[in-house]
Amino acid sequence: MLREEICILCRCTDSTSQHAIRVYQNRKPFRLNAKIDIGEVKVPEDIASSDVENCFFVADSEAKCVWKIARQTGDYHIFLDWECTRFFLWSYTLSVSCDGHELLILQHRSLYIYSTFREEGAAQKPLLIVQLPSDIKDPRHAVQTPSGYFIILHSLEQRCVVSKVTGDGRFVVRRFIPQNETQRLTDPRYLTLDSNDRVFVSDVTRERVILLNSDLTWIPILRPVEDEVNGRLTSGPNRLCYDKAERQLIVDGDGVDIYTLTENECTFHEQLRLGPGDQVSEMYKFLKQRK
Fold first, then answer.
1. Entry pTM
2. Which residues contact 95 (CB under 8 A, 6 or more apart)?
3. Which DSSP state fits 62?
C-alpha cells in the first residue's frame, strides 16, 4: 500500500516486456492508476513502500541490491548495494516502519534498519543494527508494530514460529508456538498487521493464511476453500498486505485477490487484473469464516 493505493510488483514472463509496478485505486472499481516500468531491475523479489517518501523499495536478488523508485516520476536508483556493503541478505523480504521513515532488512542474526530518506550516492550506513535473540533461527520476515516491537517469522527447534521482540532486540515478550497439527506452519513466508496489531501469516504449502491476536494467540477463523472455477484448492499464498483504510486483506498469486474483513468474517471481494505476461507468483483463493 502507498497512500491508499494498491501497489503490485509484477515479474514479467514475456521477454518482450519489462518488470513493472502496477498501481491501483484501493476501492471499486479498482482502476489501474499507473504502470511503472522497472526494466533495470533484474529479479524483483519483494516490494515495500513509504508514504513519507512517496516511494517504493524493491529487493533484487540477481543485482544484489535494493532499488528506490519514485511513485510520481517513476525514476529509480540503487538505494542499497549489498556487495559494496558486504551485506549478506538472509531473506529477500522487506518492510517499512509504521511511520514510513525506516526500511527493515533481515540478515542472518540481525535486523538492519535504514532511513528511507537518503540522497543518491550518499553513504549506505544503517541507522541501527538490532541483534536478534540467539534462539531466533532462519528469520523469514519482520514487521514493526506502532509501539516499536518487532514481529518476526522464524524457525525455533525445527518448527516455524512467530515472535514479538523488544525494539532493542534483547527480549522475546510473546511467541506463537503451534500446539497441534492444525496450527503447524509448514512453509510460512510473510507477515502483515491489521489496525489492531493482529498478525496475518501466509503459509504457502498448506495453502492458507492464519490470523493471530496482538498477543500472538491463535484465531481460528481463516481456512482454505475450493477454487470456485476449478473445484480444487489453488496454491499459495506468497505475499500479503493489509489496507487499514478499507479494511481489506490483499493476497498475491498468479492474480491478486482482495478480501474484505469485519470483526468476525472475511469475504472474497475482487481480483485485480494484471497485464499480459505479468506474474506475481501463484494465485490463491482462501478465507471463509470457520464455523
1. 0.87
2. 48, 103, 104, 141, 142, 143, 144
3. T
Average pLDDT over residues 224-248: 67
> Which of 188, 200, 82, 201 minimizes the C-alpha distance to 138?
188
CA–CA dist 243, 250 (Å, integer): 7
213: enclosing H helix or E strand:
none
**CA geometry: angle 141, 221, 186, nearest 5 deg:** 40
For the beta carbon of residue 218, count every other beta carbon within 10 angstroms: 15
Long-range contacts of 128-135 (CB under 8 A, 24+ apart): 130/167, 130/168, 130/169, 131/169, 132/165, 132/169, 133/163, 133/165, 133/169, 133/170, 133/171, 133/172, 134/109, 135/172
CA dihedral 130, 140, 160, 170 (to 10 degrees): 0
Per-residue DSSP letter, 275: P
Is the Cβ–Cβ distance between 72 and 85 less than 8 Å? no
pLDDT at residue 228 is higher than 80 = no
Say if residues 282 and 236 touch (Cβ distance below 8 Å): yes
Write out the three cell numbers for 265.
468474517
> How far, in Å, CA of 87 to CA of 270, rounded?
39
Beta carbons of 100 and 116 less than 8 angstroms apart:
yes
Q: Please provide the size of the chain in residues.
A: 291
Alpha carbons 244 and 51: distance in angstroms, whole number: 14
172-209 in b/e form (b: 16+ CB < 10 A) is bebebebeeeeeebeebbbbbbbeebbbbbbbbebbbb
pLDDT at 222: 53
Specify the residue for cell string 494498491: 6
Span of 9-13, 179-183, 192-196 with lowest mean pLDDT: 9-13
Which DSSP symbol is given to 286?
B
DSSP label at residue 109: S
